[in-house]
From TrEMBL:
It comes from the Bacteria. Its EC number is 2.7.13.3. The chain crosses the membrane at residues 12-31, 36-56, 62-95, 102-124, 130-151. The lineage of its organism: Bacteria, Bacillati, Bacillota, Bacilli, Bacillales. Pfam families: DesK_N, HATPase_c, HisKA_3. This is histidine kinase. Keywords: Coiled coil, Kinase, Membrane, Transferase, Transmembrane, Transmembrane helix, Two-component regulatory system. It is an enzyme of class 2 (transferase).
Amino acid sequence: MYHWFHIFPKNTGLSLYAWIVFCLLPFYFIIRSSTVYEIIVGVAMIMLFFTAYRLSFIKKGWTVYVALSIEMLISIGMTIYFGYVYFALFIAFFIGNLKSRAGFISLYVVHLSTTVIAFTIGSLLENEGFMAQLPFNVLSILGVILLPFTISHRNRREELESQLKVANERISQLMVVEERQRIARDLHDTLGQKLSLIGLKSDLARKLLKVKPDLAEQELEDINQTSRTALREVREIVSDMRTARLKDEMVHVQALLASSDMACEISGEGSFKHLPLLLEDVFCMCLKESVTNVVKHSEATTCTIQLENHPNEWRMIVRDDGVGLQHKLPARKKSGLIGMKERLEFVNGDLDITSSEGTVLTIAIPRIIYQKEGEVL
């Protein structure tokens, strides 16, 4: 649906108000320095130009080229008789938005040639209006030369960005499908086979119950063990899906720091190889919150992340070279730190914050948290 303001070029980087000023300028110059007859002719040419300009945007086929030809003729007349070259900029914007390469090149050459010829004739005639606007007219000629390529390049870039966005969305969809298929395979290979085995052994136990009770009891014991194994494997699958991975979070925080023009230094990545999933989830949350605080409040240029594996604890140190904690933080900025402390208290961890030249956050979690069914974390 087209509205009245579609007489202005789209996606030019200028606001609607700037284009309104461009449209009012020719009226100002014509009324200021012309006779009544010239004013009538000039206003008529301006109105005809904008009518043709609107048609060039809303029509297709040969109508566009007819409208563009009218625009060029009016632009030539305005340049020669009134010293007004600015209409050439409107045409330059339109040419820059053409998608056809052949149409772009041919119209660019024709438009540039006619504008330069009209400019030359106008300068030779040395009329008062032309000489008064000479500096602006020279800038307009430069705009006619450069603007079509600028607009065309930007439109091409936006088109490629749009295609890239669509491709990324498609990749995300395919990743979801692949993940679903992987989960289905895992469940089939674990739970499906175990349930089939339980069904077979249940039928066998029912048949042996009266004939050979000892064998039936053995089958029931096998069913019990198989069900426990299946339950454990399902829990492992679910835990793997739910738990955040530290290596993935490292990638995310590196991207976050890079987007904020901060250098990122990471050491000791191999120290957390055998980290329990529960602790990995806690470290991920603490890392995310720490780096977010660095980006928001530190004004730093470098952030260092150090992972350490000690005999009695795992330790993560996040250090920045920013302004430090110069003032007491307001309550709304403490909520993230409070959340970190609460998570760490759940696993008997500790959070230490020091600030002098920058800020250092030390997150430590003991290696032995609890013991359950003979398993030590």
